[in-house]
Amino acid sequence: MKTSIATVSISGDLREKLAAIAAAGFDGVEIFENDFLAFDGSPAEVGRMIRDHGLEITLFQPFRDFEGMPEQQRSRAFDRAERKFDLMQELGTELMLVCSNVSPLAVGGIDRAADDFRDLGERAKRRGLRVGYEALAWGRHISDHRDAWEIVRRANHPNIGLILDSFHTLARRLDLETIRAIPGDRIFIVQLADAPLIDMDLLYWSRHFRNMPGEGDLPVVDFMRAVAATGYSGPLSLEIFNDQFRGGSPRSIAVDGHRSLIYLMDQVARAEPDIAIDVPVLPERVAVSGIEFVEFAANETEAEELVLLLRAMGFSQIARHKNKDVVLFRQGDINIVINTEKEGLAHSSYLVHGTSAYAFGLKVDDAAATVARARALGAELFEQRHGPDELAIPAIRGVGGSVIYFIDAKSELAKVWEIEFEPVNDAGDDAGLMAIDHLAQSMNYEEMLTWLLFYTSIFRTRKLPVVDVIDPAGVVRSQVVESDDGGLLRLILNGAENRRTLAGHFVAESFGSGVQHLAFASRDIFQTADRLAELGFNVLEISPNYYDDLEARLGLEPEFTGRLRNRNILFDRDEGGDYFQLYSQTYGEGFFFEVVERRGYRGYGAANAPLRIAAQKRTLRPKGMPGA
Ligand SMILES: O=C(O)c1ccc(O)c(O)c1
Ligand SMILES: [Mg+2]
User: Fold this and answer.
1) Residue 425, pLDDT score
2) C-alpha to C-alpha distance for 164 and 160, rounded to whole angstroms
3) Ligand nearest to the CA of 241
4) CA 6 to chain centre
5) Is the minimum distance from the CB of 97 to ligand 1 under 6 angstroms?
6) Where are the transmembrane segments (predicted)?
7) Residue 186 has pLDDT above 50, yes or no
8) According to the annotation, is 429 in a ligand binding site?
9) What's the rounded Cα separation, in Å, for the pair 245 and 249?
10) Run of H or E residues at 15
11) Is the CB of 165 under 6 A from ligand 1?
12) Closest ligand 1 atom to the C-alpha of 207?
């Protein structure tokens, strides 16, 4: 199936939009009339520019307030249509979208509208053009695709067809089964959009909050399954009205859009194995069984500080790389790599961002298949020169230019620690840390949907509802992406709206998005806390007021809250059970570690986040005093 996107979906002038759309791999564009009107070139020039990009014009739109007008307005509407037909012929496109009439002058009536469309069909036919009719969810008389289809059916003209738009159908929660009965060849084009569930006026919701399929909450896959059942084989065209996308990066929004369509088609093909759909074949979504390692890039001095910190959490250095300035620290199943090489991505990453967790490795069943899926979804491959006795670990680029490596047990990859490293003898007592519970990445709010779609389309993960975390300086939106089978990948995306929040400061001062915190799972957080105190760990101090409130709120025993308070442990409880957390102070521009213990608890301690953030901001190093 061909992929297409409406020019209205991304930012920039028409030239920038087309370049981004073509680069992202789309086959076609819908020309939104306003983009054309604002452009200072003739229709023929615009048409040529589009074709020079290897794109076809899948649709010209919108033509408004056409059907069911009283005389005078009716003949004027036909005159207007003829003018637009002239324009379409100069542009070089043959399909026009008419959206259902919103004018108060419009008279209702299915047959009256059908008559108008039959006449318009005749005019279109003379010019070799076609017209599609779309029900706007807020149309005056027609707001339901079933009624639009009935008008098209009664117009009974080969040049008049139906246009379906997932937003209008899903926003009104119309029965999707009604789509299956429409003959696929009577559907002239299918427009796709998702949206977050927000209770608001349909027109406002549609014009400001649409997003790419998979980024919102609407069942776009179910909609597309019904469309596929009709035998429709025309373009799938994104039509995304979104205020944020209008101000975003044309390139990255276009890449997101293309990714959303590939992922959507992939889901439809898997859900409807009996329907022949012409879609790219890609490996299925990848189950991640955990984070194999996290790698920090640092210079030598800062690496020493990091090492002190790791030792204060009970980590031991267990190996060093045979050829590179890279060392491996371990505790339980947690592998922390510190890379102080003077070349390669680690070094350039250090130069740009300072000491940071610039890479991590995920455990998967098949690393090659993982990369194949990621590539099919438009992810960027990462390859770096490696020595003859080193492994080529498959990898892609992630948030903020970071790297995600894939380790499987199928190949030699799982033996990377033995193959590339040599052991060193430095085992100390550990602090009861067993595994990485979760990894949190901070980014600008505008990037969140991009990375949400990235993670959910490539990996077998699901998103939880966005949580607004109140920082003293603003709101940070927090989005969990976790294994959808309750597996072991847990990621948090924190979207900062301003640079004065803890997350925003981190993004601004470390020059980009990245891993801001790592949470380790403890066997017994009380024992861990006591051990960390012996090791000289700088725990984040929590206000006594918190424990008074906790006691009252959850009805806890004073003896229990006393034990929490003495160790600066935060507590939360949900239907599943109890959650314990403690934090490090912040390092550098706001990086920190967390230790958690879950006793059946499923969440992430959102209730504690505002308080914890306020405490951490007190530990941020004052500006202008490096190293202080
Ligand atoms: O908001 C609108 O007016 C509008 C116009 C054309 C469309 O295809 C659509 O879905 C909405
Ligand atoms: Mg539409």
Assistant:
1) 79
2) 13
3) 1
4) 20
5) yes
6) none
7) yes
8) no
9) 8
10) helix 14-23
11) yes
12) 1
Q: Which of 3-7, 354-358, 494-498 has the highest mean pLDDT?
A: 3-7
Exposed, middle or buried: residue 624 (CB in 10 Å: 0-12, 13-18, 19+)?
Answer: exposed
Q: Is the pLDDT of residue 622 over 70?
A: no
**Site to substitute for ligand 1 among 99, 100, 241, 242, most atoms within 8 A of C-beta:** 99
Domain 288-423, what architecture?
Roll (3.10)
What is the pLDDT, as a whole number, of residue 286? 97
Q: To the nearest whole number, what is the mean pLDDT of the chain?
A: 95
Reported as a single tens digit per residue, the pLDDT across 499-508 is 899 999 989 8
CATH 3.10.180.10 boundaries in the chain:
288-423, 433-619
Asked whether residue 191 is marked as a ligand-binding residue, the answer is yes
Torsion of CA 173, 177, 178, 182, to 10 degrees: 130
**DSSP tag of 390:** S
Superfamily of domain 433-619: 2,3-Dihydroxybiphenyl 1,2-Dioxygenase, domain 1 (3.10.180.10)
- Check if 171 has its Cβ closer than 6 Å to any atom of ligand 1: no
ipTM for the whole complex: 0.99
- Which is higher by pLDDT, 182 or 349? 182
User: Which of 46-50, 216-220, 589-593 comes out lowest in average pLDDT?
Assistant: 589-593
CATH architecture of 3-271: Alpha-Beta Barrel (3.20)
Cis check: omega of the bond before 62, within 30 degrees of 0 = yes
For 488-535, the pLDDT digits (tens) are 899 999 999 888 999 999 898 888 899 999 999 999 999 999 999 999
Residue nearest to atom 1 of ligand 1 (CA): 207
